[in-house]
């Protein structure tokens, strides 16, 4: 019976940072009224004030979610509240400051973002994968040398679950009708793309 060749198993990791070219914003508008109809109508007026920002070239509204409900004080109704949450993707980061200024000028209940990302992370991921494999090979070669042998062929490779893109969070130009956001630091930030792998190699001459 032929004895199988000894193997070395190593993990490798690699990462690449690229400046973000896409951002996500989340904005919420609130309104109150004596009835659901009154609250909804007031909400419509407040959201309409943001339509200039939402219609900017390079912006895409990814989703809207509306809720209308009765509020209570103790056990008695105390008017109604309506809200709309809007998810916005900014594909042209040059208009981000103007968009934020206009949205803030519409007096939302809250605005969060930007959450930075890459429009084409796969192009960057390929380089991170190459670095991860090279890292795994270097580790394996070190173990092989420590054992008095050399590294043989690659037997198998698997991808680790941490593989992927790490979004970055953050929050200058005055847009007409909006506040000055010049000092908020809205320039695109680096986004890190990581790759992790597990490799198995044969050991020769140990």
Outline the secondary-structure elements.
Blueprint: E1 7-19, E2 22-33, H1 36-48, H2 51-54, E3 59-73, E4 76-90, H3 96-105, E5 110-117, H4 121-146, E6 150-159, E7 164-166, E8 168-169, E9 190-204
Antiparallel strand pairs: 1-9, 2-4, 2-5, 3-4, 5-8, 6-9, 7-9
Describe this structure in words.
The chain has helices at residues 36-48, 51-54, 96-105, 121-146; strands at 7-19, 22-33, 59-73, 76-90, 110-117, 150-159, 164-166, 168-169, 190-204. Strands 3-4-2-5-8 form a five-stranded antiparallel β-sheet. Strand 3 (59-73) and strand 4 form a beta hairpin. It is built from four helices and nine strands, in the order E-E-H-H-E-E-H-E-H-E-E-E-E. The longest helix is centred in the middle third of the chain and has 26 residues, at 121-146. Residues 168-176 and 179-183 have low confidence and may be disordered. InterPro entries: 26kDa_periplasmic_antigen, SIMPL/DUF541.
């Amino acid at each position: 019976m032929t004895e199988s060749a000894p193997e070395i198993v190593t993990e490798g990791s690699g990462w690449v940072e690229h400046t973000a070219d896409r951002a996500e914003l989340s904005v919420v508008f609130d309104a109150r009224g004596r009835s659901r109809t009154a609250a909804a109508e007031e909400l419509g007026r407040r959201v309409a004030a943001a339509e200039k920002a939402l219609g900017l070239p390079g912006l895409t509204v990814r989703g809207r979610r509306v809720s209308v409900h009765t509020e209570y004080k103790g056990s008695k109704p105390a008017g109604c509240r309506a809200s709309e949450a809007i998810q916005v993707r900014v594909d042209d980061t040059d208009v981000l400051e103007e968009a934020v200024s206009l949205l803030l000028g519409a007096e939302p209940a809250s605005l969060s973002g930007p959450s930075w990302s890459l429009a084409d992370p796969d192009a960057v991921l390929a380089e991170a994968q190459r670095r991860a494999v090279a890292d795994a090979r270097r580790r394996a070669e070190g173990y092989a040398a420590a054992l008095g042998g050399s590294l043989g062929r690659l037997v198998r490779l698997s991808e680790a679950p941490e593989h992927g893109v790490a979004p970055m969070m953050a929050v200058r130009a005055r847009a007409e009708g909006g506040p000055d956001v010049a000092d908020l630091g809205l320039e695109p930030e680096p986004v890190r793309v990581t790759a992790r792998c597990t490799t198995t190699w044969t050991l020769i001459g140990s």
